[in-house]
Amino acid sequence: MALVPTMGALHPGHIALVEAARRQGTKVVASIFVNPRQFGPNEDLTRYPRRETADLAMLADAGCDLAWLPAVETMYPDGFATNVSVSGVTEGLDGASRPGHFDGVATVVSKLFNQVSPDAAYFGEKDYQQLQVIRRMVADLDFDIEVVGVPTQRDDDGLALSSRNIYLDETERAKAVALPRVLGVAARAIGRGDDVAAALAEAEANLVAAGFAVDYIALADAETLDTDPADGRPRRLLAAARMGATRLIDNIAIEDGQ
After folding, report:
1. Which residue in 2, 14, 17, 21 is the catalytic one?
2. Any catalytic annotation for residue 11?
3. pTM, rounded to two decimals
4. Letter string b/e over residues 202-233, b meaning 16 or more CB atoms within 10 A of that residue's CB
């Protein structure tokens, strides 16, 4: 059995996870839970889109076998006092920008794993740091679960699909496509051996010119997310930036020699 954890507001990126699991010939459970523990005090918990009827229809159309929609009281009953914290891989990038976020992710995913008891769990590579946090947690806590990363799903113009894209107005949406395009240019430059610091500085300047407020843009080890990756290790280029009030993230693998 496979688990696809979500916070609802489903889009084709989520459905790609269900479809990837179904291709393995397994039963698929999708969870929908807007987890308050992974939102900071100034983040968009109250604004986060909730549309369970539409989400359930999408899951049914995709062939999902079961939807699990726990209540907040089920996940965090009175007296709940346990926190799952993963060090190292959480400490930079989004972990630095969103203190406590990955503790909330690790805690809720641990509970979902215990509630559903899946053999495999599917996560999108768009949330790449989250994927690596879950992989580290599963290895460290001896969960007998295969963690499967599914490539980022994108609109025709390249913007990564995200539940938060609905916050973008028409003008912001048109500008937002600069994020994957700028990352692609920087990734190709780094892959062919150009100076990393110069490539990152140019990428940040181009994002600012496109209207973004840049949170970070960084080259990291693809497994550990160390931002000083050793030679010969797989690398990933990751970024987070705000277009208006909407925070977008994206990442791309570095292909050496391209």
Report:
1. 14
2. no
3. 0.95
4. bbbebbeebbbebbbbbbbbbeebeeebeeee
